[in-house]
Specification:
The chain has 347 residues and is mainly α. It has helices spanning 5-15, 17-35, 42-49, 56-81, 98-121, 132-136, 138-157, 162-184, 193-218, 225-249, 252-255, 261-264, 270-278, 282-287, 291-300, 303-320, 330-344, and strands at residues 125-126, 129-130. It has a single domain (5-344), classed as Farnesyl Diphosphate Synthase (Orthogonal Bundle). The protein is 73% helix and 1% strand.
């Protein structure tokens, strides 16, 4: 399953007016950027942005910003009066707010990688719809991914915050490194668990980490960047592990992708790695492209269950980063709710 609109709405409510208004401003800014492009990129840009993404990474960034603001306000007020406050009551200006631009940058970078991944994988579907590659062709999809990548950094550079730019640049480099590692592993069904997890850290966890760290930086608490960054990184690992389980056990109408898509693309993920360790003769089914047999083996061998268990351990590690924060109330609850939604998507 994927996060439902109701679940996202509950998280937004916990985040408060600032997060709610921020997400609206993010949508406005993304729409304006797409509308401002010339054809032939305007239409696929607009189609990609309306394809059903839940904006999880911008949501993480905006909640991290408000968490940092609330912690700063608590510290400032405590020093001044000996009292504490429970949170921030600010709301975003429109699209020029630094946090909104940063959230837009994170979403654009994420979307650029999806568009490019679909080109490399020749994927027919993305979020249940024809991918840009399928609908518009390789040349247009490649150009659109490049454009989104450039626009992401254009948004962030406009803030004049070199630390945030460095954080997103680090994530972008990791994404490329992870993709190259995955390309090198194509068709190698005996990839080690350690190498698989290294790929996950690079391809997925790095951008979750950047979203949370940039949020803390923009929220005025740079010393919180490492802690919230670790929260995001662990959450990203869990997200990818559960995504890889759903690749074998999820329905296309729910996941928006073809069943066993990674298997068909020659990519070994943890459920398959574990199933191979426990199922004699599974190599032959893989080589024959027998998706049904492989999917059954992933479940029967306990590989899906064990991958979920590891994902939940990473979620627990993420939640541990929130312990001891001198802030209670809805903002930390929002971060915890995001973690719960990530776990539930693999249930």
């Amino acid at each position: 399953m994927t996060a439902t609109a109701d679940q996202i709405g509950q998280i937004v409510d916990l985040g408060g007016p600032a997060v709610r208004d921020g997400l609206v401003a993010v949508e406005h800014r993304l729409a304006a950027l797409a509308a401002g492009e010339a054809e032939p990129l305007r239409s696929p840009f607009q189609a990609t942005l309306t394809a059903g993404g839940k904006r999880l990474r911008p949501l993480l960034l905006l909640v991290a910003v408000e968490t940092a603001k609330a912690l700063r306000a608590t510290s400032d007020l405590y020093e001044a009066t000996g009292r504490t406050v429970s949170g921030s009551r600010s709301s975003w200006p429109e699209v020029d707010d630094p946090a909104v631009r940063a959230a837009v940058a994170v979403e654009l970078l994420h979307t650029a990688t999806l568009v490019h991944d679909d080109v490399l994988d020749r994927a027919p579907l993305r979020r249940g719809r024809p991918s840009v590659f399928s609908a518009y062709g390789r040349t247009t999809a490649t150009a659109l991914g490049d454009l989104m990548f450039a626009r992401a950094f254009q948004e962030l550079v406009a803030l004049g915050d070199p630390v945030s730019v460095r954080q997103l640049t680090t994530a972008a480099y990791a994404l490329v490194e992870g993709e190259l590692m995955q390309r090198a592993d194509l068709g190698n069904w005996r990839v080690s668990r350690a190498r698989y997890l290294a790929r996950c850290r690079l391809k997925t966890a790095s951008l979750f980490e950047a979203a949370c760290a940039i949020g803390a930086q923009i929220g005025g608490q740079p010393e919180l960047s490492h802690r919230l960054g670790r929260f995001g990184a662990s959450l990203g690992l869990a997200f990818q592990l559960l995504d890889d389980v759903l690749d074998f056990v999820g329905e296309t109408r729910e996941t928006g992708k073809r069943r066993a898509g990674d298997l068909l693309d020659g990519i070994a993920t943890l459920p398959l790695i574990i199933a191979l360790e426990r199922t004699p003769g599974l190599d032959q089914a893989i080589e024959e492209g027998d998706v049904d047999t492989v999917c059954r083996a992933v479940v029967a061998s306990g590989a899906a269950t064990d991958t979920r268990t590891l994902a939940r351990a990473y979620v627990s590690a993420a939640l541990a980063e929130l312990d001891g924060l001198s802030l209670g109330g809805d903002l930390v609850r929002a971060l915890r709710e995001i973690a719960r939604v990530v776990v539930e998507r693999g249930a």
